[in-house]
Amino acid sequence: MAKENNKSTKLTPHFTLEEMTRTNVKLGYVDNLRQMQPSEQVMDNLTRVCQWLEMLRAVYNKRYRLTPGPSLSSEGSSYKDVPVIVSSGYRCQELNRLVGGCPTSNHLTGCAADIQVMGKEQLLRYVTILLDISDEMHQDFDELLMERNSRGYWLHFAVRPKNNRRKIHLINVI
């Protein structure tokens, strides 16, 4: 039996259970925790995904730090960290069906996150960073899907505990 998890439970320094268990839909976020408490396996999977997202955030900010922030000292300006924003992580079966997700989606097991991006350039930078991380760590991911619809671009990233396929795919991006 899974232990009761608090929404504010930190999975990693920058990602919470709340963030990883809600899905951004047309009228706002839908909270999966009302539907079902994630199992220990789902929590482990979410944590694994978040560990990759922490590395993505760190590398992206080290390389680009595009958002100007307030000065930390009188000697000059600084840049604040750009967060990685998750629009969908773990989904219960009902929510996955409502959003048109695949019946075998990695979201159902907590192995996937959809990441918001600010256009094609940030999408490509995120993809490049995740590929570099995979190569440097000698660990595969399961899916790296660059996607676009009428509302914009996003990145679907998934990593499983084992049997990762390193599937890379463009969906309506060009």
Overview of the structural elements:
With 174 residues, the chain is of the alpha+beta class. Helix content is 30%, strand content 23%. It contains four helices and nine strands, in the order ββαββαβαβαβββ. The chain has helices at residues 17-20, 40-63, 93-98, 120-137; strands at 10-12, 15-16, 22-25, 28-31, 86-88, 112-116, 143-149, 152-158, 167-171. The strands form three sheets. Strands 5-6-8-7-9 form a five-stranded mixed β-sheet, with helices on one face. Helix 2 (40-63) crosses helix 4. The chain starts with 9 loop residues before the first strand and ends with a strand. The mean pLDDT is 86.
Topology:
Elements: E1 10-12, E2 15-16, H1 17-20, E3 22-25, E4 28-31, H2 40-63, E5 86-88, H3 93-98, E6 112-116, H4 120-137, E7 143-149, E8 152-158, E9 167-171
Parallel strand pairs: 7-9
Antiparallel strand pairs: 1-2, 3-4, 5-6, 6-8, 7-8
Helix pairs in contact: 2-4
Q: What is this structure, in a nutshell?
A:
The chain is built from 4 helices and 9 strands. It has 174 residues and is α+β, with helices and mostly antiparallel strands. Helix 2 crosses helix 4 (120-137).
- How much of the polypeptide forms β-strand, as a percent range? 15-25%
Overall average residue pLDDT: 86
Largest sheet: 5 strands, mixed
- Strand runs, count: 9
State Rg: 16 Å
Number of helices, where a helix is a run of at least 4 consecutive DSSP H or I residues: 4
Alpha carbon gap, first and last residue: 45 Å
Structural class category: alpha+beta
The largest beta-sheet arranges its strands as 5-6-8-7-9
Helix content: 25-40%
* Uncertain segments: none
Instruction: Label the overall shape.
Output: globular
Element pattern in H and E: EEHEEHEHEHEEE
